[in-house]
Amino acid sequence: MIGALIALRATCILLGIWGLLNAAQWLATMRDWQDGGARGWDVRGLRRGRLYRTSATALLFAPAGLSALAGAQLAASAALILAPISGLTLVWLGGFGLATILLALRAGPDGADKLITVVTTGAILQVIGVVLGDQRIAFAGVLWTGGQLTIAYFASGASKLLIERWRNGDALEAVFTSYMWGHRWTAAIVRKRSAAQLVAWLVMLPEVLFPLVLLLPAGWLFTVLACFFLFHMAIAVVMGLNHYPWAFLAAYPSALLLSGWLRLALGLG
Fold this sequence. Notes:
This protein is mainly alpha-helical and 269 residues long. Helices cover 77% and strands 0% of the residues.
């Protein structure tokens, strides 16, 4: 239970870091979300269903409402970083999760938003398990987060392997030479067909083999996860994704716990 508590504390801290970055980004770009602009709700709201065309949603998704949501996420994130695990942690996680979902609905959820919601849900289950002293509930939270991370990596790698443009490197070249996601030095690398194909396979194979990584001893697993995180950091730097890698890092403590329990169940030591 001590190991689970340490992992949970690490998860809350990493969630808080992600939340601080996400909220700060919203506050820094708040002018872009005003009516009359490209991201204003007067324009974006027309693309949504009737549920999003009420006066309540117009108020919530106006700059003042978004600022309040970002402020709430900042406060909850700071509490997750600084406060010890207790029943009150459920309040911080609940507020954090609600603010994350509402902000994601305004901007359109991306992969980081979805994964951070999974981690938050898993953390809530883990906190309930710790507070009640019920290892089954805590394990459910670990399994939810670690399992979702494993499925996400495997599905990402498998879907790429099925696409010829990924296997021959064309898709990677298209991404890294594009105006939006490209970068001068990455474009220079992937313009060589052999280099683009090699990098593509170095991305696909580790992802599709990730379920087997959970069977590795703790030291090796930690090294592999560190490599995955560095990969995500490199992608974030090249594409300017800011808080993207921290969403994956927040799921890693659960992956480490899940691996330990899986190895124990299989008698691998």
